[in-house]
Amino acid sequence: MQTSVIGFPRVGTLRELKFASEKYFKKEITAEELLQTGKELRKTHWNTQKNAGIDYISCNDFSYYDMMLDTAVLFNIIPERYKELNLPELDTYFAMARGYQGDSGDVKALAMKKWFNTNYHYIVPEVEDDTDIKLTGDKLCKEYAEAKSLGIETKPVVIGAYTLLKLCRYTGTKTFRDYAAAVIAAYQDLLRKCEENRIAWIQFDEPALVQDMDGEDIALFHQIYDAVLSVKNESSILLQTYFGDVRDIYPELIQMPFAGIGLDFTEGKETYNLIEKYGFPQDKLLFAGLVNGKNIWKNHYEKTLQVLSALQVKGIRTVLSTSCSLLHVPYTLKHENRLGIEYLSYFAFAEEKLTELEELRKLAEHGNYHSEKTYRDNEKLFAAERNCFNEDVHKRLSLITESDYVRLPKRSERQQLQKKALGLPKFPTTTIGSFPQTKDVKANRSAFRRGEITQDEYVAFNRKKIAECVRWQEETGLDVLVHGEYERNDMVEYFGESLGGFLFTEKAWVQSYGTRCVKPPIIWGDVYREKPITVEWSVYAQSQTKKPMKGMLTGPVTILNWSFPREDISIKESISQIALAIRDEVLDLEKNGIRIIQIDEAALREKLPLRKSDWRKEYLDFAIPAFRLTHSGVKPETQIHTHMCYSEFTDIIPAIDDMDADVITFEASRSDLQILDSLREHHFETEVGPGVYDIHSPRVPSVEEIVAALHTMLTKIDRDKLWVNPDCGLKTRGTAETEASLKNLVEAARLVRASQTD
Ligand code: GLN
Ligand code: ZN
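^ thats the input. predicted complex w/ zinc ion below
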């Protein structure tokens, strides 16, 4: 039996790529130096996989920013405005990813969206009416040759034509149908190139196949691949899917002349049943995604081996694979020194997953594996009792009743009461919470962590920052202030640290987008609040101003979605536990004089099941009530905000209204305010602050631009419901650009207020 890895993380075990890229952006190193870092990382990653004994190792899974963007560039999908900057290739690429503001011009970045049901964000390629889609890039073949020169045979991976067509944004009058022919020709050329380079296997990633597909989608898929596969070619094609099962197209898929098909057995609930029902052709390889690429728990060998043996009995030629790219898990347990073996022995990160693949391969080949040491160790681990139970949590959960999910009085009444109580102007201005995490802020936190400064010193420094931040917001004229979030490096980790049941890693970074990495906590056991978390900071911040200070919490859905979840209890149960813990914090903030509380649910949309038919039962029916449980206990005058970023939520607007928050702020500027129509259509009741500028880019928006955005918003949103704010938190931004942007924002709000007659 052979083994395959769909993709490997690329930022480096110690985030080398992130740091090199950031230096390059600041012009501290040259392009050559950045490229050299990339080259070294690729070499390390290939060798790690080779030494682990992996048979099918990917290349072109490396990226300087994002693989969708790479694919766009490979096929010349570069909007005119970026070409017109006339920058070197690498800088054009980064201009698309991050925006550009400099001597050559001023353009915004392309939109970013969540990659299916993960916390990874991809760049949305933009196709204009005159975009000439064709193969122009050579990254794929170059990386193949680079690996080859190191003595490593790889399979290049690229986003498949169907997924690419589906995920692009079409800005002109044409749609994806108009581009099918060009895309087909481009992929045909790519295949020819692969053949010229004597590439044995090429992997087309088609995760879009795990979403609902109708007849038209299936026809499009056929149209594409009938044509692509008709190119006479020596390279074998692996059609790789992940993040679910391909139930809508499976019977067709297995009829098509792919040399290999990759299916997900961990998230693909129906995968095995589909094989039972329709079989799997003997002339193809089945790449069986049995080692979970998305979670960090060890593989349960017995379960996996049973599936492998069942496939073997059916005579299916199986390659053991990860369920998706390992991009979504951290690199290695090697750097984790703080957690004891009683914990670490339960986990497998990317490198350890390579070991699992190899061990499983050997066991599967062994036939009578039950006495093998690797098997017995694994069996023992799963048989042992894990210390994760908390009696009180279960008691509390059992006492929740329906009324705990309902806030009274109803929102329209609350809105009147709050208007009076808070005395805010029309179009109130606010920010999403964090202010720039400057070097000194990070240094203070890490000095405290390392025990180099005392608790008092740590607090004193943060208080000074808070006081400065509050003063600056007052002077600038913002209406609802924030404390700046200097105490947290991450909106989930910070809360997890004060909640029982969470575990923390030291270096377990996972790429979120571009150079941004996160370190998701691990939910190990039952969750409860150990002590107040934010109260002290918020109360101090409020003491510095008469204006309302917004308390700032992370909601249960986001905490769960940005952590590695347990696999021994349901998501629903985990979310309820976290909701109760956050509820405690909400009530404490209120009790301590905080009149506005924001409960961020940045990740609400992201774990929405990929198939619409699963949305309610498998997610919204418990995620939305869990949010209500966090705030149903507050007084009518206390204003509850929530915030969401990225990703489309036009399709779940009623569910969002159902969270029963008083105000929601969300990402909008990168998606051209498309969401406004849906708000109107659904008679959205929650007050709204669609972000007026993009914070994922250092670009400073002009006053005129913000005024224009607000006027557009006012055509769709009632004027007593519109808030004025950026897209998201400001922590990744520099101070100068942030201050300039917010000044413009406040000025724009002032101008729009002045232009309104009562
Ligand atoms: N309050 C958080 C912040 O401002 C929200 C971050 C987010 O939505 N990702 O940083
Ligand atoms: Zn956000």
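The CA atoms of residues 80 and 131 lie 8 Å apart.
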